[in-house]
Amino acid sequence: MGRRVEVVIVGGGPAGLSTALFLSAFAPDLAARTVLLERARYPRDKFCAGGVGARADRLLESVGVHVEVPSVPLCAVSASWGPGRTLARLEGMGRVVRRFEFDAALARRSRETPVELREGVTVSGIRRHPDRLVVDTDRGPIETRAVVGADGVGSIVRRALGLPRGEIHAQALELDTEITANDPPRDTIHFDLTDSTLDGYIWDFPTLVDGRPLVCRGIYHVRVGERGRPSDIEAKLARYLAARGLDIARCKKKRFAERGIAWAEPMAAPGVLLIGEAAGIDGLTGEGIAQGIQYGALAGRYLAETLGAGRTDFRTWRSFVKGERLGQDLALRSLLMRTFYGPDRSVIEPFLAESSAFYEVALQVFAGLAIDPESVRRLIGEVARYVGRTGWSTLRDWPERRRAFALAREAARHTGTSPAAATETAPNGETTEAAQ
Ligand SMILES: Cc1cc2nc3c(=O)[nH]c(=O)nc-3n(C[C@H](O)[C@H](O)[C@H](O)COP(=O)(O)OP(=O)(O)OC[C@H]3O[C@@H](n4cnc5c(N)ncnc54)[C@H](O)[C@@H]3O)c2cc1C
């Protein structure tokens, strides 16, 4: 039998590398008996638009890690909707990176930790023995107490647990082009949501390729189970580009799948944790870099606590994630995803197209800032006015409203907003569940 370690991390993307960094910070002895297996060699590419919320950098900086790579700093997000256009600004909200450079830099920092990083090793399966797990690789087996599945959307670890590919799955198609006269300023990322037949959006992100300022554009389309609507995303993106004088046939197209989180699906088994896109990221936007890093930070802390206490059942992993900011953020985004990309889009789209406080709060979350209670109060006021204008039945008929109220209550608890403020959302003397 091969060598024996305490933890095997499978996959060296943002999730796996962050697990190594945070495990090293929380439990250096355990990290010294941990190996991270990555099938590629750095620098390796990953199809990705590279938009990273500043919360990822803040989190990494909390363990002394600065990822210095060429980046385009972001200060604004704009969106086109059927009903209009929105622009929200927040200085230092994030940056756009290239994964070729970002992941390699993160790997360099991981190499400075006690975790052994092995490149060019492909995991082919996991075998379970009464007292240990055996990770099979193309370089021989490794015995371990715990496995972290950070191996992305095609996760072999997830398959080894017998789990299906997941309820929320998406396709994204991206390419890089020259800047055109219609493009937003270089500090702004743009989302086009004008096509209501698309359960997703088209994006334009400023990017730097080998020092050249270009625009990374692409289309994201998510499906919820078999009910989701199919879409010819290449044809839609081609039309969007043509309207800007760009010919899709002349661009190098990169297509890849994504997995959104579905809370009903298992995220762990005895001895095995799933994190990052192997578990599921944000299905609303397909954002997964910052989530991968947040998952890695949580996995590092969780492994330090559970293995340190001699436990490997990992029964509490899902509730642990759910109780943290990552879990609450993902839960809220799941709710918006099911509403926005579904028959209830008309309930929420006019509100999103006119709200300003919604973007204030969303950008604070994206950037990893403490949420300003004043922004939350303004958001509640805007919701109240919207519901007052469109009629209370708008919300009463909304199937997801119970979960929305539960999340609002949770958010109010975290931001210190008084439950009394939440009653403002109930016009005509009716009481919302948030206020009960
Ligand atoms: C076109 C596109 C655009 C996107 N744009 C953005 C964006 O702008 N912002 C954003 O935040 N997110 C974006 N995403 C999502 C983001 O890229 C992913 O969610 C993120 O990379 C997930 O990180 P991860 O560490 O979980 O997995 P990954 O980054 O996929 O890393 C998994 C790693 O595991 C390795 N691996 C896989 N199988 C094995 C095996 N059997 N053995 C050993 N190693 C293995 C892989 O080589 C890889 O290095 C985009 C995705 C796509 C497809």
Features:
single chain, 436 residues, alpha/beta, FAD/NAD(P)-binding domain, eight-stranded mixed β-sheet, 16 helices, 16 strands, globular, disordered C terminus, binds flavin-adenine dinucleotide
Task: Walk me through what this model shows.
- With 436 residues, the chain is an alpha/beta fold.
- The chain has three domains: 4-70 and 95-166 and 262-323, FAD/NAD(P)-binding domain (3-Layer(bba) Sandwich), CATH 3.50.50.60; 168-260; 327-435, no CATH class.
- Helices cover 37% and strands 26% of the residues.
- Strands 1, 2, 6, 7, 8, 9, 15 and 16 form an eight-stranded mixed sheet that branches.
- A hairpin with a 2-residue loop joins strand 12 and strand 13.
- Helix 9 (317-323) crosses helix 10 (325-340) and helix 12 packs antiparallel against helix 13.
- The chain starts with a strand and ends in a 14-residue tail after the last helix.
- Bound molecules: flavin-adenine dinucleotide.
